[in-house]
Amino acid sequence: MIEQSFLQALILGIVEGVSEFLPISSTGHLIVMGDLIGFSGMPGKVFEVVIQLGAILAICVLYRQRLTRVALDARHDPSARNFIAAILVAIVPAGLVGVLYHDFIINVLFSPYVVCTTLILGGIAIIVIERLNLETNITSIETLSLRTALKIGLFQCLALVPGVSRSGATILGALLVGVERKTAAEFSFFLAIPVMLGASTINLWESWDLIDMSHAYIIAVGFAAAFVSALFVVQWLLNFVSNHGYTVFGWYRIAFGSLMLAYFLLRS
User: Fold this and answer.
1) Residue 199 has what pLDDT?
2) Which of 18, 34, 133, 220 is 20 to 30 A away from residue 44, measured at CA?
3) What distances in angstroms separate CA 150 from CA 8, 93, 102, 173, 174, one per listed residue?
4) pLDDT tens-digit profile of 13-63?
5) Domains of the chain, residue spans
6) Are 16 and 54 in contact (CB under 8 A)?
7) What is the DSSP letter of 109?
């Protein structure tokens, strides 16, 4: 039983770390994979919350120098202040909607069928947007206007629906408003830090009384797996999209979503 739980936690941790920053929906993959391997989960989705924090820690480690520099230079460097302001402005829309509709999202939308459908629709959207050959004139977060940041934040609201993908929504939104591919991905990474920390804090606060210390071993395995796998994926993604774009992720979403939809329909 311990070996099975260890393997399940390891698999889901890797799935989280790999899919969190790719535009393929980490939540969707966790729901589907958890169902496939029979992972019973933990009260209040504690396991899912903690492994997401593992993925976020990877971003903080990889970008520690840049984040430190922005924090230290904010008092006298306008570009550093703009970096911080753009992040703060972009998180507001999804933060408000998430707080207002948190219970509805958790209790109604977290369904394999919703996930499969949004995976497919999101894949189509990626392919269509990539074929538009959009003009890009924003090449750094430091020069991102607050109006543009707000527009990207509005797109992020779509990610509250499981399967849409937070990174996918923010990256595609950024591309549509003129941000080049690599900068769009990095902005998505940085947005994840406050957004996911906030969501995790809410979930942990609501579930604190349900947490059992006997789960610590499983949580630690998932956290470590998510952290390590995210370290590799983030660096790979930046190099890949700079040369190849996001189209391949669109086709992957369509294939994966269709396969999983067929599986759940046949099983029901």
Assistant:
1) 72
2) 18
3) 38, 8, 21, 10, 10
4) 999 999 999 999 887 788 778 878 887 655 546 788 888 899 999 999 999
5) 2-267
6) yes
7) I
**pLDDT digits 0-9 by tens, 80-136:** 999 999 999 999 998 888 778 777 777 777 778 888 899 999 999 999 999 998 888
Are 15 and 30 in contact by the 8 Å Cβ rule? The answer is yes
User: What's the rounded Cα separation, in Å, for the pair 55 and 71?
Assistant: 21
CB 156 within 8 A of CB 198: no
Q: Is the dihedral of CA 192, 195, 199, 200 positive or negative?
A: positive
Q: What is the pLDDT of residues 195-247, one digit of tens each?
A: 888 777 777 776 666 666 667 788 889 999 999 999 999 989 989 988 888 99
Query: Which residues, other chains included, contact 251 with Cβ-Cβ below 8 Å and sequence gap of 6+?
Result: 123, 127
C-alpha to C-alpha distance for 183 and 154, rounded to whole angstroms? 18
Polymer length of the chain: 268
Strand, coil or helix: what is 38?
coil
Q: pTM of the predicted model, to two decimals?
A: 0.87
- Cβ–Cβ < 8 Å for 143, 102: no
Both tokens assigned to 176:
């549509």
What is the spatial distance between Cα 179 and Cα 132, in angstroms, rounded to a whole number?
14
Alpha helices in 159-246 (DSSP H): 166-176, 181-207, 216-244
End-to-end CA distance of the chain: 27
In three-state secondary structure terms, 179 is strand
